[in-house]
Amino acid sequence: MSRSARDIREALARKIKDEISGPALLRMIAEYDAWMVPNSFVNVGNPPQQYAVMFTDEEAYKLAQDQFGDKNVPLEYLQIPGSRILAMLAGSVDSISINPCSEDSIAFPKHLLPELVKWGQAIEVERTLYSVLHDDQGWQTIKNYDSYYVPIKQTSEGTYAPLPAPDSKGRNLLAVFTFSDALNAYVLDQHEGVPVDVTIYSGGNLCKWIVDSNCDGVVFNCCGPGRPAAFAKEFAKEVLSYA
Known about the structure:
The protein is built from nine helices and twelve strands. The two termini are 29 Å apart. By secondary structure, it is an alpha+beta fold. Strand 5 and strand 6 (106-109) form a beta hairpin. Helix 1 (5-16) packs antiparallel against helix 2 (22-31), helix 4 (82-89) packs across helix 5 (113-135) and helix 8 crosses helix 9.
């Protein structure tokens, strides 16, 4: 998930020119680890509205500080991953502004913030999936997530069965996706863009389903974006062991 400030600023500039999709930009924002966020909100208007501001780098931060003053953009700031900012802040403010006063500035008004929360939560889960076997932390996060996408197909018997993740060894691996852009990448890569039926699971229900299935394992986001996260079937039992 490594992103640089330059990557983000280029993506912001491309979005302003309509050269990059909204989902692609939001994923990059959520994946960037080094956002600079003042330790207070900017209050504007009467009654006041709360604006959260976030900056890609010191240059953008200083430019806004010169324009708005130390009261609104204080010297003290936090450095936080984008996914955490969106998951925690987007639901509690009236707007989020990125690099205000810069040429690549973009703002998200209140009606768009619920979607940003979803992006933050999805990338937080992806971060956990990548690390959980190494640090043994975040099992509850995986279990609590409530928007896993599972593509399915109708069988000749009229029932529905999950679609598999591609595997060169011929194993029966379930394909699961953390967000719609990852599902779309799979549909494009494995099904030539033809839409598929989808069931949405919570983490607990997903893992119960995996345990009861005859699969060999599960692959999250098998076709990107980002790197897939693959697990043996026992992974589901481990998730379910957390109350």
